[in-house]
Amino acid sequence: MPKLSAASRHSVSFTVNGVARSVEVESRTLLTDALRHGLGMTGTHVGCEHGVCGSCTVAIDGTMARACLTLAVAAEGCDIRTVEGLGLGPGRLGVLQAAFKRHHALQCGFCTAGILMSLDTYLRRHPDPSREELTLVIGGHLCRCTGYAPIVAAALDAAAELRGAQKHPEETAHA
Amino acid sequence: MKPPAFDYIRAAHLDEALGALHASGGDARILAGGQSLMPMLNMRLTRPAVLIDIMRLDALAQPRLEKGALVVPAGVRQAALLDRATLVDEVPLLAQALPWVGHAQTRARGTPCGSVAHADPSAETPLCLLALEGEVRLRSRKRARVVKSVDFFTGMMVTARAEDEMVEAIALPLRRPGTGYAFAEVARRHGDYAIVACAATVDSRRIRLAVGGVADRPTARDLPLLDGSALDDALNAFAWDLGAGEDVHATARYRRDLVRHLGRQVIKEALRCRN
Ligand SMILES: Cc1cc2nc3c(=O)[nH]c(=O)nc-3n(C[C@H](O)[C@H](O)[C@H](O)COP(=O)(O)OP(=O)(O)OC[C@H]3O[C@@H](n4cnc5c(N)ncnc54)[C@H](O)[C@@H]3O)c2cc1C
Ligand code: FES
Ligand code: FES
Fold first, then answer.
1. Which part of the chain is the 2Fe-2S ferredoxin-type domain (chain A) (predicted)?
2. ∠A71-A62-A16 over CA atoms, to 5°?
3. For residue B152, what are the domain limits?
4. pLDDT of B178 above 50
5. Are the beta carbons of A56 and A45 closer than 8 angstroms?
6. N or C: at which end does chain B have fewer Cβ atoms within 10 angstroms?
7. Which residues of A touch B (CB under 8 A)?
């Protein structure tokens, strides 16, 4: 039974976007801080730190999770995906990201990383979602500047493209 | 907004978790889904010396059917239960209420047993457990015991669980033929804790109405099969007896109104789907 003492630092290992990573943390370190400060991956945002705003949402073992409500040490051995994993390559947006760009589904972008991760996780399991289902998924996030209509529209569009029902190839590359 | 320091134990066996709980002498907390405990730690509303993570215990991972009940052990997450295709037939009341517990993102981590242990007076899972007259299975290093839901919730986030006990599982009675079940709540936004939540079960003998969000704990009352103004009077009496208070979300009067209206709505719906 591993007991990780409050007094010392501990090495925790997990995969982030398919790459094995290790990071030194305290037992109390939040996954958000392990990603941002420990690994320099600042795509995962921190808004409220009590589970309400959704900006820190990542995928843990294929399910949505608030990184601010997850201890880094509790993620030992897990498969973590963050917004940094969504791009197709350097400077190339993924399908969901490109749909957000087309639909103007972000303004300041603070909420965007979390929303993208919820949608990416949801669409992997539910490729043909209804508007209502997507509204409920997005309901777990707060966006204070864009408004939710373009976000829902982008999500529906991206779902259609991922199913192969629609294509926007020329827009996928970053300008 | 960062947690205070604590020792972290990732229990690999139930005995380890119970041993650590015993050894800590009341200074430990079980860490289940973390969807209530982590916010409380981040806000430093609690300062346990030890956290005991129980989410890797294989023994607690799977719901099972047992003597007329669906037994949900402490490691089962809310989303996993909601994904269970047979839940609507087994425990239709919980199938109706679970989508109201937080958001998809919090349900993916939170556990029904954690909700019961946490005992928020507005929470949906304790309300359903009480409406169905389910039970809470507690275990410490030395003994196991079963507490009826009516005896478990003893006050505002206070329960009959002793400090060295964990909620090993909750047992929810299976749907009975001829009984109808219904749930409804009003919250400021979907996913928020309810201002008032109501759950009803109706069979050929009685109406049982459970109300959350008003008293300091979920509260149930059994009524004969009333209707019309007799039912209105009974609902009105119940609404007053719950001793509604006022807060930033709602006045006491609005809460009483919700008890009368939602109460009537769930009773009507439970009657309708009785078969
Ligand atoms: C944004 C947001 C919205 C939410 N909305 C709702 C809502 O609408 N309705 C609702 O009901 N809940 C809501 N919740 C809370 C959520 O449902 C929690 O999952 C639940 O209250 C606690 O379950 P948990 O597994 O996360 O427990 P934890 O947070 O891990 O633990 C909560 C408490 O219970 C104790 N505990 C947990 N499991 C056990 C056990 N097996 N034995 C003994 N003690 C135990 C812990 O020590 C702690 O004190 C919300 C949470 C968030 C972040
Ligand atoms: S920072 Fe995690 S939900 Fe707001
Ligand atoms: S784009 Fe600014 S908060 Fe959503």
1. 10-86
2. 60
3. 59-173
4. yes
5. yes
6. C
7. 1-7, 26-28, 30, 33, 49-51, 54, 57, 63-66, 68-71, 73-74, 76, 118, 122, 136-137, 139-140
